[in-house]
């Protein structure tokens, strides 16, 4: 059973890892080819805070710029995003699809089931990092780009650590709640907020210490591409990843497994209450079938309303946030080169 679940986990998700890794590898190759043809001063003249936010650090050549822009920034976000997808589907996704009961139909324990899912996640994400590492070795050789002084191995290990952090966090939330939406949404939100905080807070005067409360700082705060491994940061990410795995085991073992059709939905519970019935009916709406486009629009009314409300709130929040950063932004813009 352990071998079967582990194999199923690999078969279900290997395509996403392969596609992401190949796409990022080709992106790195294209970026190196492009950067060889342009004046790098457009990047090296950027203010230090802005370079750090995009993982560029000190620009020493084409290789450093390509790895900083593609791998340190986009690569880490993409690999972490795929890890979140795998983690959220490992337990909560099986419940959503109604296949969890079948997996638990054997005499194997829940612990062994979860550990096999976690092992599949670790193997897949590690394979993705390994493919990216291979592309990192091949691309400079094909284009005759120097990588002297760059610690590519350290960058890949740090990238693997941050991806496993978010993947196992998604696994823990899914194992404890059974909700694939929560298992994917919360880690993805933390990933974005963490990246923004680790990039922006060091620029905002006395608030740089707050960056240490966000996981992205422990991925790229030590600049592994240029400075090498940071054992302390890796221990922090690894320790939290193990803690998430322990939480997964405890939460999954103690929780009742939900069938796909079991229990009313959120809107079903709201409709059951007289106070919230009218609002929930208006918000969820009815999927009308007079035309395909009408059905599609009305079917996704909830997502449209909630997304629009979130964008509206974020739009209002932007003003006060930038007012707080007023002096820092002025300093950044004054230092920007004319070409930018």
Describe the structure.
The chain is mainly α. The chain is built from 17 helices and no strands. α4 (62-90) runs antiparallel to α7 (110-143) and α4 packs parallel to α8. It is globular, with a radius of gyration of 23 Å.
Topology, element by element:
Elements lengths: L1 H34 L5 H4 L3 H6 L8 H29 L1 H6 L2 H4 L6 H34 L8 H26 L2 H21 L14 H6 L3 H4 L3 H24 L11 H6 L2 H11 L7 H8 L1 H24 L1 H10 L5
* Broad shape: globular
Distance between the ends = 58 Å
Following the backbone from N to C, one meets helices and strands in this order, namely HHHHHHHHHHHHHHHHH
Largest sheet: none
**What is the percentage of strand-forming residues?**
under 5%
* Annotation field: number of helices: 17
Mean pLDDT: 79
What is Rg?
A: 23 Å
Q: What class, by secondary structure content? A: mainly alpha
